[in-house]
Amino acid sequence: MAKLSVYNIEGNQVGEIELNDAVFGVEVNENLMHKAVVAQLAASRQGTQSAKTRSEVSGGGRKPWRQKGTGHARQGSTRSPQWTGGGVVFAPKPRDYSIKLNKKERRLAIKSALTTKVNESKLIVLDSFELDEIKTKKFVAVMNNLKAEKALVVLNEKNDNVIKSANNVPTVKTALTNTINVYDILKYDTLVLTQDAVATIQEVYA
């Protein structure tokens, strides 16, 4: 099992923690991580784009001119795609972009992402993360103490003081253990977990 130092919000080491290899020490599957990221980004697409084809555009019932003898190219309708006001050739229609990942794939992808952070020494464990008030300045000070500039901060339970203090910091995102995903873990350089969050993640994914 890998051992990591545990820090307080002042950035001082206060202990050590052993990480479960079944969660933080698996064989990294890059293909699954990529698949999970693609699935998440696809699921976030609205899929509501729509345009009309020539059969849906109003008008165009009469032939604009006779077939022969005018010098123009033959035309059957003023709503053909080449006409102004005509329909779109391959018009986009509402669709579902979501990609299905089964439960085992999702779990292994998250464990691979967590293992990646451990391997890169980009995982910081806090004994706890408590702020006595909602103050962006105090949150930034904690991040500076941990030397974590672009970070994903994962809490075990909702803490409004921490979450709201982080809202105005563009390089930081907060999440709960039940909302972590591969995209966010890989997007942010540093992963900051509280000890409680580590325990919960190991309990859920081991």
Automatic annotation (TrEMBL):
One of its GO terms (cellular component) is ribonucleoprotein complex. Residues 43-88 are annotated as: Disordered. GO terms for biological process: translation. It comes from the Bacteria. Residues 43-52 have a biased composition (Polar residues). Forms part of the polypeptide exit tunnel. Keywords: Ribonucleoprotein, Ribosomal protein, RNA-binding, rRNA-binding. Part of the 50S ribosomal subunit. Belongs to the universal ribosomal protein uL4 family. This is Large ribosomal subunit protein uL4. InterPro entries: Ribosomal_uL4, Ribosomal_uL4-like, Ribosomal_uL4_dom_sf. One of its GO terms (molecular function) is structural constituent of ribosome.
